[in-house]
């Protein structure tokens, strides 16, 4: 899978396993057959669809993934996400700390914010942490299409991938590692924004389609990825069979079909990873 891409994960029917696949990608679950490999030097962060917070202040929740994050960058991300209520809350907290005799209960901030604003806090925390691999479970479900909020949030996620981090100097982009984001869209239109679309079929197979030529190949390069970058259809079969046609629980086969030819490679749990690691770069 090429690194530095926005990847939409869709399914042809409800219950096809989209949430499970994203949990596997985010290392919240682990496969019983085969493996999902990400180079160990890349940080992976899985974000649930439902916002969750610690019983701490708003600032502490926002900086949980990076306690030393730059304050100006954090406020810049909040402005990009149109989080005006959160900015007001941080401003009120700062003012209260400078006025003698005023007690500020920093743990009650979430009671003052709407569900939409809380969902933005949930997303902003991930963008502040700025992992190389970000996995988002239905990140747009809490936002309105009519108001344009959903489109703005999708644009922010895409900007995070394109700029290799939100609110970071664009002139230093080449010095930062690529950012990859897997997300579950709410509609086909939202999926069309992605560089790559992974569609889970009823039989458990995955059809991968790409809309660009790609530039980086830092993730594991499975058979057929070069064709996927050119917009061809690549089928990754979840069924496992040996050469005689019998099912084999230990040798999942990744099948790439191109025209009249088919290329197969079995990946066993003990086999070495395929592909190359990225060149040395700053975080």
List keywords for this structure.
283 residues; globular; two-stranded antiparallel sheet; alpha/beta; seven-stranded mixed β-sheet; 8 helices
How do the strands and helices of this protein lay out in sequence?
Layout: E1 6-11, H1 18-25, E2 44-47, H2 58-62, H3 71-80, H4 84-98, H5 115-129, E3 133-136, H6 149-162, E4 180-183, H7 188-191, E5 196-200, E6 206-210, H8 225-229, E7 234-236, E8 253-258, E9 261-266
Parallel strand pairs: 1-4, 1-5, 2-3, 3-4
Antiparallel strand pairs: 5-6, 6-7, 8-9
Helix pairs in contact: 3-5
What would your notes on this structure say?
The chain has 283 residues and is an alpha/beta fold. Helices cover 27% and strands 15% of the residues. It has helices at residues 18-25, 58-62, 71-80, 84-98, 115-129, 149-162, 188-191, 225-229; strands at 6-11, 44-47, 133-136, 180-183, 196-200, 206-210, 234-236, 253-258, 261-266. Helix 3 (71-80) crosses helix 5. Residues 98-103 and 213-282 have low confidence and may be disordered.
Concise overview:
With 283 residues, the chain is an alpha/beta fold. It has helices spanning 18-25, 58-62, 71-80, 84-98, 115-129, 149-162, 188-191, 225-229, and strands at 6-11, 44-47, 133-136, 180-183, 196-200, 206-210, 234-236, 253-258, 261-266. The protein is built from 8 helices and 9 strands.
Distance between the termini: 20 Å
Q: How many helix segments?
A: 8
Evaluate the radius of gyration.
21 Å
Largest sheet: 7 strands, mixed
């Amino acid at each position: 899978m090429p690194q530095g891409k926005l990847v939409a994960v869709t399914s042809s029917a409800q219950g096809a396993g989209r949430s499970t696949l994203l949990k596997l990608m985010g290392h919240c679950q682990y496969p019983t057959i085969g493996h999902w490999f990400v180079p160990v030097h890349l940080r992976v962060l899985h974000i649930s669809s439902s916002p969750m917070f610690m019983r701490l202040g708003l600032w502490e929740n926002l900086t949980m993934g990076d306690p030393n994050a730059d304050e100006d960058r954090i406020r810049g991300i909040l402005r990009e996400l149109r989080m005006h209520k959160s900015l007001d809350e941080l401003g009120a907290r700062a003012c209260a700390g400078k006025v003698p005799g005023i007690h500020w209960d920093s743990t009650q901030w979430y009671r003052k914010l709407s569900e939409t604003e809380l969902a933005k806090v949930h997303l902003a925390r991930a963008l502040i942490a700025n992992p190389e691999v970000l996995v988002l479970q239905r990140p747009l479900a809490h936002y309105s299409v009519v108001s344009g909020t959903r489109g703005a949030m999708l644009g922010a996620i895409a900007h995070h991938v394109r700029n290799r981090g939100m609110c970071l100097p664009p002139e230093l982009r080449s010095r930062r590692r690529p950012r990859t984001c897997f997300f579950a869209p709410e509609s086909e239109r939202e999926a069309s924004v992605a560089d790559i679309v992974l569609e889970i079929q009823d039989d458990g197979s995955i059809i991968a389609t790409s809309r660009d030529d790609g530039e980086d190949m830092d993730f594991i390069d499975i058979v057929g990825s070069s064709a996927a970058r050119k917009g061809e259809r690549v089928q990754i079969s979840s069924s496992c069979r040996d050469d005689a046609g019998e099912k084999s629980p230990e040798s999942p086969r990744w099948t790439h079909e191109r025209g009249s030819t088919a290329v197969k490679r079995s990946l066993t749990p003990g086999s070495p990873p395929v592909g190359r690691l990225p060149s040395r770069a700053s975080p």
